[in-house]
Design brief:
mainly alpha; 16 helices; 286 residues; 77% helix
Length: 286
């Protein structure tokens, strides 16, 4: 026989044996707890959904503030702390994001995005050994999506762990072969690893093909073409670059190569720009 405790009157409950009465009371209590838990879960979902919509529509501060109020009201809800950490990380407030994600970690398991936020935050506050361990552990996971792979690349690049940076950027290129940023990241990692220009130039050509307006891609291609001794093609690419991009060169060695290229092809205007830039950096002690 199935008993429905909500239909039992107080008098009937008082007349039942003690142990049976406690059983009925416990059932009612746990049902109430379950109901409260479901209501809290739904409230949490509603709050996170509303904050996510605000954030997606550009109301970043408002969305973060909504979640701050929610975490004060439900400090044991790890999903709220995690959602707020992701938004803080998204607007560059990585130290605050670290605090929030560490709180979330005590309450719920972190997903890959949460683990990346944790690693980035550790790096931001100078705990580089722990950050490296966190990046390495995350990189071992299978089927990471493109955003996580890009985040891992950035983390490894900041820590100058170029082999791992190349590894994750290769995975990103495999997953999204037409992503110019992923291709350029792989090229950067290979350059840092002092790989031959022959292995880098095809990647940079592809990145320029996918994003022809990106002057940083084209400038890197010019330098690598010079390393490959493809001077005619290098000068053709140099002529496409704007004056501002030419004067933004931060590597003196690359600047000297471009200066020699401009002089060789009789390009006085670009040669003067590059020479002035090199002289300015020399005076500044760069």
């Amino acid at each position: 026989m199935c008993l429905n405790s909500s239909r039992i009157s107080n008098r009937a409950l008082e007349s039942t044996p003690y142990t049976f009465r406690k059983t009925l009371q416990n059932k009612t209590f746990f049902k109430d707890l379950q109901k409260i838990h479901r209501m809290n879960c739904q409230n949490s979902i509603d709050v996170r959904r509303r904050a996510a919509e605000m954030f997606a529509n550009g109301f970043h501060r408002g969305a973060i503030d909504v979640l701050e109020v929610a975490t004060r009201q439900a400090p044991d809800d790890g999903s709220l702390w995690c959602a707020r950490a992701k938004m803080l990380h998204g607007v560059g407030r990585r130290v605050e994001a670290l605090d929030n994600i560490e709180r979330a970690q005590l309450l719920v398991p972190l997903d890959c995005c949460g683990r990346l936020i944790l690693a980035d935050g550790l790096r931001e506050v100078g705990r580089e050994t722990l950050a490296a361990d966190a990046y390495l552990a995350l990189a071992e996971e299978e089927n990471l999506d493109g955003n996580i792979l890009v985040g891992l690349y950035d983390g490894f690049a900041h820590l100058e762990m170029w082999r791992k940076a190349a590894q994750v950027s290769r995975s990103a290129v495999i997953e999204t072969p037409d992503d110019d940023a992923a291709i350029f990241n792989l090229a950067r990692a290979l350059i840092a690893l002092e790989q031959p220009a022959e292995s880098v130039v095809p990647l940079l050509r592809r990145a320029v093909q996918l994003a022809p307006k990106s002057e940083s891609y084209r400038l890197a291609l010019v330098v690598q073409l010079l390393r490959q001794r493809s001077c005619d093609e290098a000068y053709d690419e140099l002529r496409v670059l704007s004056k501002s991009s030419i004067t933004s060169i931060c590597c003196r060695g690359c600047g000297r190569r471009l200066l020699a290229l401009a002089i060789e092809y009789g390009d006085r205007e670009r040669a003067a720009l590059i020479a002035t830039q090199l002289a300015t950096e020399a005076v500044a002690g760069k």
